[in-house]
Fold these 2 entries.
Entry 1:
Amino acid sequence: MKENIALIGLMGSGKTTIGRELAKALEMKFIDIDSIITTRENRNIVDIFNDEGEEYFRKLERTIIDEESKKNNIVISTGGGVIIDNSNIKNLRKTSYVIYLDSSLECIYERVKNGKKRPLLNDIDDLYKKIEELYEQRNWLYKISCDFTVEIVLESSIQDTVDIIKKAYIKS
């Protein structure tokens, strides 16, 4: 069994919420990569994207994942684009059981439609279409990068999802 669990999936899939509960259930430490980035940079993700660009953000993300993935007994919530950089997945897979939270498009849309904290979704005319495009671009990367997939729909409960992941992790 690997020492850590890493959650991957599109923005709004529930990585942070499920990650916190999963860490409590397994008595592990919870780490949110985006939170570490915002703390180190002393600014939010949108400002980082606007001021420095996506490439700068991805470099920060890569550095932090490299550092954090070396720790033990943690649940890691990653950003939605973590799978774009293969070195991130290589680092995570060394020590982490990687779980893909495969959320339905409807679920993601409902969770992100009123927010302004997602730089890739700001100033978009057709939000649902953009989410669909991101899903189509990234879904195969999530699938080949994970050890286990959990399907998430609007009706999914946090506790049921945590239980499914716990069972899969313990069997791994």
Entry 2:
Amino acid sequence: MSISQDLAYLRAADLDEALRHLEKDGACVHGGGSDLVTCLREGTVTCAQVISIGGLDDLRAITPTSIGALATIAELGRHEEIERRLPALAAAARAVGSPQLRNQGTLGGNLCQKPRCWYWRGDFHCLRQGGDTCYAAFGQNHGHAIFGAEACVYVHPSDTAVALTAYEARVRIAGPGRSSRTRTVPVDEFFVLPADDPTRETVVGRGEIVTAVEVPAPPDGHVGVYRKIRARGAWDFALTSAAIVLAFEGGDRGKPVRHARLVLGGVAPAPWRAAAAEQALVGRRLDESTIAAAAEAAVADASALDHNGFKIDLVQGVLREELQSLAG
């Protein structure tokens, strides 16, 4: 399928130039481009001018506390410092798509990618396309949401966003004026739920660009894992995923949990923090009864659609298996 839209193209020399041009009507930003090109071909995104930021090497840096938005997913998956310091993020990066997509795709693009709902990407004038109906709510919805699905039931497809939420990351966003408009948003607040606005996925506004993700130091002695369940072993998006970051009293896995972040993917329009499951873990030893209680608490507020009730069992199964592995 070819792109039917007539496009102008600008390769920005620096961030200021990119921001100036993004203020114009119909401008869109191009980083790795794997999702943008697909959306342009499908007609789900319209664009008059593509502003490429691919030449901005200062947005590629990976440091112990900050990851540039143009760092590729493949780089994150094999980066020794990320693997040591943020193991769940490294695992999430390795779970993304295929080797080709990981080499092309960027962290910023992975966070900002569009939903994979087959109704929105098909020939349906759905709620996200300005209509008044979410067809997936009563149609074929086995891949759709069981949490946070008021108004529209798509799921956010990002793997890295799930892990970054578990690590309490913050997203740095630059807008027109750069220094005066730069803001940093907790990743928990970065995504927009359909109940607030069914036409947007993130808080990134017109003329703004995600430039980096800041990740604070995790608790000393923490352990982190990411697990993704999908129909095929590669390429596919998550039916269910989970990022778990735990720390134990005295760094001893036989002692009570002192810090817990459990975040689910593939089940909501944004990475879904399982706060009730976290509460079931903190202050308790990670034994069978604690793990069972956490898994049950994680799905207490789940609401299945006609074809995706299996996701409730998947969430519980994934959490049980991964928590048992962390118990040692």
